[in-house]
Design brief:
Helix content is about 45%, strand content about 15%. By secondary structure, the chain is α/β, with parallel strands linked by helices. The chain has a 9-stranded mixed β-sheet, sandwiched between helices. The chain is elongated and about 60 Å long. The model has no long low-confidence stretch (mean pLDDT about 90).
């Protein structure tokens, strides 16, 4: 791993400071660009100026003003994380996912924390998302689809939850590569298959945009979903309902004009409503009993016509 500059180390320190957040980091970097000074110089401003001139919230300004040496704090963080095989990806450095550079928005992360093989993020990525309690038809279709995509060289991206996420992840690992986007900080992330005596087989990485020590927060799950969509060239949703996390991911994909495909095996009214609404807004319905193979799916993505109401919103609006 190449050496980090002092500004990059300061950025890492900020990324671990909960009150600052992506929006605060964006304002600090913008202030440094306006003043034509280093980020470290902006971090040295007094609390009042951090609020009035940079635009930080009072709690974020207090957090930044209390940092005695951001570069040393960042270096300590890097050393600690590397001892756990967790590594930072920084916007603008090699390894940063190219899709996140497209109209990211102020709330986009400037730092990601990764465990595993981040090079798989440079492949074509397809999101497999859906219900934690899917129908048998949707569960089987998700596994088959993920296996075909991974075998064809794509990286299957999911949120790591039970149900559809797990089916997609396991199937993709058997055939190729999968990336799991965590709703918690990487230090807090736990799975049985990360134990030293039980490593996953295949190519994988786990990615988080949150401060490494962050535990579960409901708001983080929705932000995680946005990262899943942003990383992927297409989104396939299995058994979505007309509310909840999968619905949120679908709505975000449609807002970005990303190809969205809906697979419904469940017969519940909420699932039927979700499919009707999403198809009306621009999604394409797929039959769980006749899932397209990798070549057919590539054609569907190529032929997909975004809905006319697409606003090309920022990836992290």
């Amino acid at each position: 791993m190449a050496a980090f500059t002092d500004d990059e180390l300061a950025l890492l320190a900020l990324s671990a400071a909960g009150p600052v957040g992506p929006g605060g980091i964006a304002r600090l970097r913008a202030a440094a660009a306006r003043r034509r000074v280093s980020l470290r110089d902006v971090l040295g401003l007094p609390k009042g100026k951090l609020q009035s001139e940079v635009g930080l919230r009072p709690d974020a300004a207090a957090c930044v003003a209390a940092m005695r040496s951001p570069a040393l704090t960042g270096r300590s963080l890097v050393d600690r994380l590397c001892s756990m095989d967790i590594y930072p990806l920084i916007e603008g450095r090699p390894g940063w996912p190219e899709r996140l550079t497209l109209s990211p928005g102020e709330s986009a992360p400037a730092v990601l924390f990764v465990k595993g093989d981040p090079s798989i993020l440079s492949r074509s990525c397809v999101a497999v998302v859906g219900s934690r309690r899917p129908s048998r038809e949707a569960l089987g279709a998700a596994g088959l689809f993920a296996y075909e995509q991974a075998a064809a060289g794509a990286t299957v991206v999911s949120g790591g939850a039970r149900g559809i996420d797990s089916a997609g992840r396991r199937a993709a690992l058997k055939a190729g590569a999968t990336a799991v986007i965590a709703p918690v900080g990487m230090v807090r992330f736990r799975w049985e298959w990360f134990r030293p005596d039980c490593p996953p087989r295949g190519r994988w990485c786990v990615l988080s945009q949150f401060p490494p020590d962050n535990g579960w927060e409901n708001s983080q799950a929705l932000r995680r979903n946005r990262l899943i969509v942003a990383l992927s060239r297409a989104v396939v949703a299995f058994d979505p309902r007309d509310s909840g996390g999968t619905w949120n991911s679908c709505a975000h994909a449609l807002g970005l004009g990303k190809p969205l495909f809906v697979v419904r095996g469940a017969r519940g009214e909420a699932n039927k409503r979700a499919q009707r609404k999403l198809v009306r807004r621009g999604a394409v319905a797929l039959d769980p009993a006749r899932m397209p193979d990798a070549a057919a799916f590539a054609r569907l993505v190529e032929e997909y016509i975004p809905p006319p109401t697409t606003n090309q919103a920022p990836l992290f609006g």
